UniProtKB/TrEMBL annotation:
Name of the gene encoding the protein in the UniProt record: Cd22
Family of the protein in this entry: Belongs to the immunoglobulin superfamily. SIGLEC (sialic acid binding Ig-like lectin) family.
One Gene Ontology term of the molecular function aspect: carbohydrate binding
Pfam families named in the record: C2-set_2, Ig_3, Ig_CD22
Domain Ig-like, residue spans: 153-250, 257-347
Gene source species: Mus musculus (Mouse)
Protein's name in the database: B-cell receptor CD22
Bilayer-spanning residue ranges: none
Membrane topology, as annotated: Single-pass type I membrane protein
Task performed by this protein: Most highly expressed siglec (sialic acid-binding immunoglobulin-like lectin) on B-cells that plays a role in various aspects of B-cell biology including differentiation, antigen presentation, and trafficking to bone marrow. Binds to alpha 2,6-linked sialic acid residues of surface molecules such as CD22 itself, CD45 and IgM in a cis configuration. Can also bind to ligands on other cells as an adhesion molecule in a trans configuration.
InterPro entries to which the protein is assigned, alphabetical: CD80_C2-set (IPR013162), Ig-like_dom (IPR007110), Ig-like_dom_sf (IPR036179), Ig-like_fold (IPR013783), Ig_CD22 (IPR056386), Ig_sub (IPR003599), Ig_sub2 (IPR003598)
Length: 353
């Protein structure tokens, strides 16, 4: 058993050294580009694997505007961070150490998370993360995009919003850094939307900081009313109660036709005439053709004299009979569905009851 075990170790060791001997076999994962603005900070989630599974980092350097000097075969540039393992205390130097604006939050095994606070607009460009473990070396570029002014958040919304149907809007920006908190706030026509605003189901904020991407988001879920159509929704980025940036979108709320019925008069003597009008007050999308139908006591009225106009339908009852008393309403449909008016009661008086 013991002999077999040793053989296995030897074979594994051989395979490992064959596979890991090339300097190309470091893997370093972090977001491709990190975004921030002048005065904020940047936290770079970062993970690495050295070519030798048991290797420990001996040195870590963070360069700015680096170049490779072919003559000396060394990287040169502004050194923002330089930590070397010491004999005295081999671990501590590479754990949680701060030099100037840079803090290394990782470790010597697999974590190269870094933070730069504050960050400057002129830090934009490539950082170079130089790592050394024994004879293995690696240079990893990390791209920073630091603007002069805080950038605008994005707002995502579904392609169609309908009245009374729950909808979720997402506001976010590719930024998150512990130590520089940002808050995303929502406004409807300049008044703040909070979780206690009627029609609001929830507002949830989240921070994502992974080796794939870094962002802060707020999701607003609510049920818009048809009267919210055309109103503005704003998402504001705040830091220490100060507004950094914002973005505004307009709500396009689709709704069924809103109809207004008028009956004149509502009380009438037998044989007199009554005129009813049905007006399309509002509709989104607009009605393609005005096809208003009329109902009496819930049943469709047929063979009536109708005058249909652009946004209006007129129903004239020339000589009313007792049978014509009842409740009237009108209806019209757009692509969203049918909209109904209120019901209006018609009373017919008889001379000789
Ligand atoms: C990093 O620091 C070590 C001493 O701790 C020094 O020998 C080395 O030259 C420094 N590297 C750079 C690139 O400044
Ligand atoms: C790396 O270290 C940071 C800071 O301690 C920690 O927040 C993060 O979760 C670590 N990442 C991984 C992949 O372990
Ligand atoms: C970058 O800007 C800061 C001030 O924002 C300044 O102190 C520093 O010298 C600048 N660095 C370079 C390399 O221009
Ligand atoms: C930084 O990001 C913004 C927004 O994505 C982009 O418009 C700009 O060109 C970028 N700047 C640099 C220097 O990469
Ligand atoms: C934010 O990051 C995502 C993924 O990392 C990217 O697809 C998107 O273009 C970025 N947005 C901006 C405005 O830079
Ligand atoms: C129709 O619009 C008028 C004025 O624009 C308004 O007074 C009325 O309440 C509306 N009626 C309905 C049913 O929406
Ligand atoms: C109502 O009209 C009918 C015919 O249209 C007529 O026969 C009847 O006399 C009229 N009644 C009254 C009260 O005018």
């Amino acid at each position: 058993m013991r002999v077999h075990y040793l053989w296995l170790l030897l074979i594994l060791g051989h395979v490992a050294s064959a596979r890991y001997s090339s300097a190309n076999d470091w893997t370093v994962d972090h977001p491709q580009t990190l975004f921030a603005w002048e005065g904020a900070c940047i936290r770079i989630p970062c993970k690495y694997k050295t070519p030798l599974p048991k290797a420990r980092l001996d040195n870590i350097l963070l360069f700015q505007n680096y170049e490779f000097d072919k003559a000396t075969k060394k990287f040169t540039g502004t050194v923002l961070y330089n930590a070397t393992k010491t004999e005295k205390d081999p671990e501590s130097e590479l754990y949680l150490s701060k030099q100037g604006r840079v803090t290394f939050l990782g470790n010597r095994i697999d974590n190269c998370t870094l933070k730069i606070h504050p960050i400057r607009a002129n830090d934009s460009g490539n950082l170079g993360l130089r790592m050394t473990a024994g004879t293995e070396r690696w240079m990893e570029p990390i791209h920073l995009n630091v603007s002069e002014k805080p950038f605008q958040p994005y707002i995502q919304m579904p392609s169609e919003i309908r009245e009374s149907q729950s909808v979720t809007l997402t506001c976010g920006l590719n930024f998150s850094c512990f130590g520089y908190d940002i808050l995303l706030k929502w406004f409807l026509e300049d008044s703040e939307i909070t979780s206690i605003t009627s029609s609001v189901t929830s507002i949830t904020s989240s921070v994502t900081s992974s080796i794939k991407n870094v962002y802060t988001e707020s999701k607003l879920t609510f049920q818009p009313k048809w009267t919210d159509h055309g109103k503005s929704v704003k998402c504001q980025v705040q830091h220490s109660s100060k507004v950094l940036s914002e973005r505004t979108v307009r709500l396009d709320v689709k709704y069924t036709p809103k109809l207004e019925i008028k009956v004149n008069p509502t009380e009438v003597e037998k044989n007199n005439s009554v005129t009813m009008t049905c007006r399309v007050n509002s509709s989104n999308p607009k009605l393609r053709t005005v096809a208003v139908s009329w109902f009496k006591d819930g049943r469709p009225l047929e063979d009536q004299e109708l005058e249909q106009e652009q946004q209006m339908s007129k129903l004239i009852l020339h000589s009313v009979t007792k049978d014509m008393r009842g409740k009237y309403r009108c209806q019209a449909s757009n692509d969203i569905g049918p909209g109904e008016s209120e019901e209006v009661e018609l009373t017919v008086h008889c001379e000789f009851p």
